[in-house]
Amino acid sequence: MFDEQGDIWRQYKISSQPAWIFTDSNGDQERVIGALSDSEIRKKLEDLQKPKPVN
Questions:
Q1: Considering only CA atoms, which of 53, 44, 54 is closest in space to residue 23?
Q2: Could you give the 3-state DSSP secondary structure of residue 42?
Q3: Which of 10, 37, 55, 30 is nearest to 47 (CA)?
Q4: What is the residue-level pLDDT of the chain in tens, covering all 55 positions?
Q5: What is the rounded CA–CA span in Å between residue 37 and residue 53?
């Protein structure tokens, strides 16, 4: 996503790029700062689709 004004960066407190924010169905977020390979991105997205264990 193109964030010309930096609004999204400020909202998520991102200080450098590339930056990734993965959000699951519960709204829990994982931040990753730095480059990710295609396989790493695919794995993160697959993990987000898995049901979380109930505590």
A1: 44
A2: helix
A3: 30
A4: 778 888 988 888 877 778 899 998 888 899 998 999 999 999 999 999 988 777 7
A5: 27
